[in-house]
Amino acid sequence: MIEENCLALSDIHGWYGESKALHGIEINVKRGQTVALMGRNGAGKTTTLRAITRQLTRTEGSITKDGQDISAVPRHKLAYKGIGFVPEDRGTYNSLSVQENLKLLPKVGNSGMSIDELHSFFPNIQERRHAPAGTLSGGEQQMLAMARVLLAGPDLILLDEPTEGLAPVFVQKIAELLQDLKKRGLTILLVEQNMLFTRKLADHFYMIENGLVVADFPAEELSENEELISRVLGV
Question: Exposure check for the chain: N or C terminus, fewer CB within 10 A?
Answer without folding.
Answer: N
